[in-house]
Amino acid sequence: MMVVLDDRQENVLMMWRHRFIIDRWVWELPGGYVDPDEDPAVTAAREVEEETGWRPRNVKPLVSLQPSVGTTDAENLLFVSYGADYIGEPEDINEAERIDWVPLDSIRERIDTGEIIGAASLVGLLHVLAFRAG
């Protein structure tokens, strides 16, 4: 997954999507699965482009997490990009109902109201908020 921040680091690129397993609409960061022999940073950038239509300008490692460390080995790698360029409509139109630049100042409220619940999205967003570049 990737936290894509705008040039001013005031907004984050997110996807509004329905998760059928929990039957809820939620905001999530873009991301996906690493193809065989693909570098995870390349995967993260590719997934952002395919899912949102935005190309991250610079991709840097952010954090690694294990969302269910007691039951499964499911490492999630998170990256961050400061800035992105619009390249056109998303390739995969079924990924999200809406793509939007969400104000970082609204993230806490969206977490509190249950609009952001995915483990990797939470970790990435909270990491960026806690350790914001200065």
Notable features of this structure?
134 residues; alpha+beta; Nucleoside Triphosphate Pyrophosphohydrolase; 3 helices; 8 strands; 33% strand
Secondary-structure arrangement, i.e. CATH architecture: Alpha-Beta Complex
State the order of secondary-structure elements, H for helix, E for strand.
EEEHEEEEEHH
Question: For this structure, what is the CATH class?
Answer: Alpha Beta
Q: What does the overall shape look like? A: globular
Structure annotation, total helices: 3
The biggest beta sheet is recorded as: 3 strands, mixed
Q: How much is the average pLDDT? A: 93
Compute the separation of the termini in Å.
Answer: 23 Å
- What name does CATH use for the topology? Nucleoside Triphosphate Pyrophosphohydrolase
Question: How would you write the strand order of the largest sheet?
Answer: 1-6-5
Number of domains: 1
User: Which structural category do the helix and sheet elements fall into?
Assistant: alpha+beta
Query: How many beta-strand segments?
Result: 8
Which residue ranges are poorly predicted, with pLDDT under 50 across at least 5 consecutive positions?
none
Radius of gyration: 14 Å
Percent range for helical residues?
Answer: 10-25%
Looking at CATH, the homologous superfamily is: Nucleoside Triphosphate Pyrophosphohydrolase
Work out the strand percent. 25-35%
